[in-house]
Queue: 4 jobs
Job 1
Amino acid sequence: MIEQLKKDKKTGRVSFLLKNSSPAFANSLRRLMMEFVPTMAIEDVTFVKNDGALYDEMLAHRLGLVPLTTDLKGYDIKKAEDEVSAKNSIKLTLSAKGPCTVYSGDLKSKDPKVKPVFPNMPLVKLLKGQELELEATAVLGLGKQHVKFTPCLAWYVYQPKVTINNNHKQFDEFKDKYPPQAFTNGKLDAKLIEQHNLYEAVDGINDEIVKVERDPTTFIFTIEPWGQLSCAEILATACDSFTELLNQFSEALEK
């Protein structure tokens, strides 16, 4: 069971609860989101002209790490044995003349649905008279093939439960050992501990004053997307990939 906790509208980061689960399933879901959700990334670059300070290889590497918005319905994953085609790739072009700074937004895509997520990423500086002209091929790939295809960073922790006893006889002796952000009117506050994520800071000081327990069947998941896909798309695609992999495993067992 999944229950959303919060969403950061600025960064797109989402946190949710995964209930009645196990570490094996939680880690499988984490790896699926990072390694089995396809995104677009630049794979090949053909340079027509490059007078800038960066070698072709260095500039191609920078281009490959530019996150591109991804249309999962419009393209197929390019496998190693597949030829480059309109179904698994898209062409982007770039033409610039110095003096200027060349940004990721200067890449012109043949498909408006596939473009740099962050148009202000600097690629290279060109001096007066220097020119850069290239054609790049972006393909749909998986994070297990290369990290440039990874759509997000995903992690999880056990859901903690905090029990506080502000009336303990040793409270005055230990209160200075707890972070000041955990106090309201001189008393420890469980809501502030949760709000500021102070579980590790208060754990182990005195279990009779503050006790932190963790539920081994409930996980707080966090997804931080790089912008190619939304968190909802990442999670849904990861679940679909999980189902497909389990079906393949079941079929292999039957054979």
Job 2
Amino acid sequence: MLATMAANVAQSFLVGIRRRWLLGLSRALSAVGGVWLLTEIGQVISDDLASWLKNNGQTFFALVFLAALLGFLSYVYEPRKITFKIPTIDSYITIKFGDIFAEDANWLFSVNEFFDSRLGDVISSRSVHGQFITKIFAGDEIRFRAAVDTSLRGTNGTDIPRPGLPSTAYKIGTTAILQNGSRRAFLVALSKTDLRTHKAYADVPMLWDAMTGGLESVLHHGSGDPLAMPLMGNGLSGINVDPQHLLRLITLRLVDYGRKYGIPKQVRIIVHDDCFEHIDLREIKRDWMTR
């Protein structure tokens, strides 16, 4: 645990230094200038301070260096979590790096249009979809599929023959609601599937439609409980968008939908650590804190 925390802190500093070292240096020089100005004023109004500085020059310079270092490090440090309030409504969005399955909240996950369950050649065990089947259903594909079929009973779909696999393709945005203890998991169809290779693919309009359908189900069936969701479309679903821009799109959809219809008071976007070097949370927060 401590080793992980130390590694995360080190990563935050290293990434931040690469991104903002010049501005960090400017902040450090500003800190030095502030200390120096206060010192000059202090010497004019206090003979004791002037005498101390004369006799403790090395200590003073060490303190100045420390102030500069702290100013530099505090500016370049990359946060692993941010929270901001959605303008005009009483809901907050938190974006953080971590494990979504550790979140005590309702979950909103994306799946393919068939809500497939076969791990391995169809659903990667590394995907959030695959991890959900593994962690929540202990890898029991039949039980997972039965829960999905029960939830989607009566929902219209398109029959597409797929030997040995579910043959009903549902409209993008269709959402299955699965009970998970005292919480619920909302599984929303986001991606299409290549019938030969089983590779999933999606685009930005499909992401928009999927989030609309998923958030509508959360609004009507989520009881207002906190909601956690991953960085939808970043994994194997095939949306070819940089993680930073993808996060902006997801945040924008949450804000837009929340203003029009409402969302839970607490919405968390949980991003995998693999994206840390590709996402600047400060920029995202700055975008919405200035509105």
Job 3
Amino acid sequence: MNVIEVERVSRTFRSVKKKAGLKGTFELLLKPEYQEHQALQEVSFSIEEGAFVGLIGANGAGKTTLLKILSGLIPASSGTARVLGADPFQRSLDFRRSISLVMGQKAQLWWDLPALDAFDLIQAIYEIPKSRYQERLNTLAELLDVKRLFQTQIRRLSLGERMKMELIGALLHWPKVIFLDEPTIGLDVLAAHKLREFLREFNQRERSTIILTSHNMDDIERLCSRVMILRSGKMIYDGRPAGLTREGERQLTVRLMEKPTAAELALETGIPVELIAGEAQLASENEEEEIPEGTVRFNLRNELIVPTLQKLMQHYQVVDMGIHEPNLEYVIQRMYESGETPSPEVSA
């Protein structure tokens, strides 16, 4: 059963265009000139119940605009969007009781209240029966391990602790559809990991449908079985994360005793070098990890790995090497830099 249906949705924003200087100010007052920006262009997709979907795109690609349309905060300029069978922008009471929107960059709880008081207010707003409210609160507090912090003012909590409280506040009414906009932004590695584990368990336990936007590809790779990619407001991919990787492609990372240039390596191997430590930063799951100088990386098909190593060893001393699948961060980065559009692979 599809809980979200989006067909040819577009959204255009209009803003005033101001010219420089005092003359531009007067023209703005007397004869304003407008410009339009198309944030979404005929986006279509459907999402089934219980799915965990990652929504990917560069800044300005239209991710947050799409979530705002689906949660009913803004209307679409054209096309139709249905969530749980309802028009989101009508904002009916049943619809609002059935969804939740969490924005990592915006606080939604009352900062000057202790967390427990803020949750009691949410219980009153949603008219959650006392017994059910207490059961849900205990369940969420146990999953996130934050019960000891319930008497602390929200503003006195760390960023990771506040984010956990925001999630509890967003889930107390047990929504069927959850929209998460950058929920792990600014969190340290441990806090982000715990938040991901909670979201995975909640999704599996409650069969809630979740759409997650994040610039952290760890979030997407570890949580989402399906990804949708927006570029300049257009949907350019909808399918499994594995479908983004070129078939048979591997990343060969080699550490050399010498420190050749990219041009020298390309000449001697006949294959372009993607990155060299010292000239550019190699992608890593841990951004603080120091990559030794002399480390180079090639993106190769399987059959080219051995010949490339043989050519390298003819000219250089190989200290260390590794072969692994290209990570999602690299694939997305390459897609945006090259402008390539992956083959569509729409999930069922």
Job 4
Amino acid sequence: MFTRFISTLVLLAGFGTTLHASDFSATFAKVSATTVVIHTRASMEQLSPEGTQTRSSEGLGSGVVISEDGKILTAAHVVSVADDILVQFKSGNSYPAHVVSMAACADIALLRLNEQPPTLESAISGDSGSLETGEEVFVIGAPEF
């Protein structure tokens, strides 16, 4: 299952061996609508002299839309301890999501939006088996919009 998602990530990571630094902006323009910012919130209990206290922390990461039905691929470390996950799109719209599957050893997680946005563009899948050792790749993230 994760092989297909890793293939998608590899596709976003590189569009062949002929890319040069000047081509990165054009490639980003092709896929930027599929990149998202992931906001997380996690709560943890801590012991203190006053007793048990609940502390909250926030996290930030990026992901890529891999299907038009609301599946998002991200790194497992972004969502591994999250109680709440909010996916923000370039449009500024945000939607809650939940973890469907995670492989911490590969640092990869699959999210699904809790509600379907009116329109959703997904990244184009690639075939990591067609890549050769030594080919250039790069990763596209979603800086906070």
